[in-house]
Amino acid sequence: MFRRLRRVVAWLVGIYLAQLYFQMGWGKFDTDGFWVAIFDRWNYPDWLRLVVGGLETAGGIMLLIPWLAPYGCMALLLVMGGAWGTRYLEGSYVDVASISAYMALLIWIAFEWWDFRWPNGKLNQAEPEQAPFDPSVLNPKRDVVSSPGEVFTSSNF
Length: 157
Fold this sequence. Notes:
A two-stranded antiparallel ribbon has the order 1-2. The chain is mainly alpha-helical. The protein has one domain. It has helices at residues 2-27, 34-41, 46-62, 69-90, 93-113; strands spanning 144-147, 150-152. Helix 3 packs across helix 4 and helix 4 packs antiparallel against helix 5. The model has no long low-confidence stretch (mean pLDDT 84).
């Protein structure tokens, strides 16, 4: 029950983050947009803005696919690590705190969907149940030691 609730919450948070990162990433491709001036102010090259936008867009899409979500989280964590460093060096500590919270959510989502990752995906596999004890698997001819130096076999009984 608890695992199912965690997965539902992971889906909801993942959908929110997917929308957020897709929207933020897509905005970085606009040559007349806000991000051109920001990346200029940070003295970052234009190609970096496009790479970051591509990673954010692709990572946002990957968050919606459980077997790709851990990899999307890793790509987004890479981008967010750069954003965290930039904001820290800039002195924007409130932004550093919010970026840290988003990074924690990404780590949690990657953890929740890790068992489903591609190519080892277990999405359609049921969780294994514990098999009941089956005494027929015991070997009746096996030697039994009850005390040091004393060995019983089935022929002794």
